[in-house]
Amino acid sequence: MEKSLVLRNKYWILRHGKSIPNEKGLIVSSMENGIKEEYQLADEGVGQAQLAGELFLKELKQRNIPLESVRICYSPFARTSHTAKVVASVLNLPFEGPQCKMMGDLRERYFGPSFELFSHDKYPAIWAHDEKDPFMQLEGGESVNDVATRLASALEIIESEFQGCAVLIVSHGDPLQILQTVLNATKQNTESSSNDLASIIRAVKVSSVLSQHRKFALVTGELRKTIS
Predict the structure, then answer these.
(1) Which of 25, 110, 153, 159 has the fewest beta carbons closer than 10 A?
(2) Do the Cβ atoms of 88 and 94 come closer than 8 Å?
(3) Are 95 and 186 in contact (CB under 8 A)?
(4) For residue range 151-177, what is the model confidence (pLDDT) as tens digits?
């Protein structure tokens, strides 16, 4: 019998707007660097976040979802916090209020010291590594599976704390494409005999799934509805 993932909330994902590191062509993936204000949104990224907030608001209205039901969960990095704050302002939600939640597990994938603060030109080597073995960690960094595991944990926390909400997850390129890869795979999963969220996700965290995460890439400031 097929077991599909049944979630208590509706989910949207948003990649942060164009950041100062994006403009400079730098990889900023460690928590230590990522939270620095010097790596927040560039002016163009603020505009992207504003547009994403307006689009999200439009989708909420189309679905007759009240703003009281909205929750914004975001990575603690400066570029994602900045994005979430702009979106909250568009929705007229207090950023410091209970409807906005910072979650460490939504942080950027740490690519390790060999990539940190180096050029974006190194990304193709990372993704080639991922296709070869998504369970193998980058030197001093995280594997695709590492990121998938902590994102599953974040999703479990959100599902346990909220019910019947419209949840916007504001995060980064790699984590969001990995999250989409896992969620999409749950639709085809017929092996898990459990309704348990952790068990269903664990069943699809296999090389053939995780190695394909680039298929779900988002551009900066892109809003996307996920399965729910």
Answers:
(1) 25
(2) yes
(3) no
(4) 999 999 999 999 999 999 999 999 999
